[in-house]
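WARN no homologs supplied; continuing
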Amino acid sequence: MKIIALAGAYNSGKTTILQQLTTPLRGMGARLLARVTHGSDEQCALSFNGKIVGVCSGGDNADVVRDNFAFFSANNCTVGISACRSVSECASVDAMKACAWKLGRQLPFYVGKMREKNRRAAVDAQTVKQIIE
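OK structure emitted
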């Protein structure tokens, strides 16, 4: 499984970006396999180009990150994308590393840290392809 973490501080736009990610995927022909909502956060599994892509917008604490990995596993995801708090708030980062290690990965692949100025960034089809490929 390819593991991707979008790290950032509270209210930096992680949830917004990850929720936006599913729209271009579906527009590119992805089929929704599963969707679970937890308040404003959601866990989605989509079938896209022979892969199962899991997108989990929550990740503010270690328990949520572990739950995201359980969702990825239960849905046989080949790509797992999860939010997690930035390194300064290390409980969710440690959970990401521990879950990744259990899957045979040394470290998750970080897309990058979100900053407040990125909150209104949009996710387009080209970005989606780069992330998933």
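Confidence is low (pLDDT under 50) at residues 111-121.
OK
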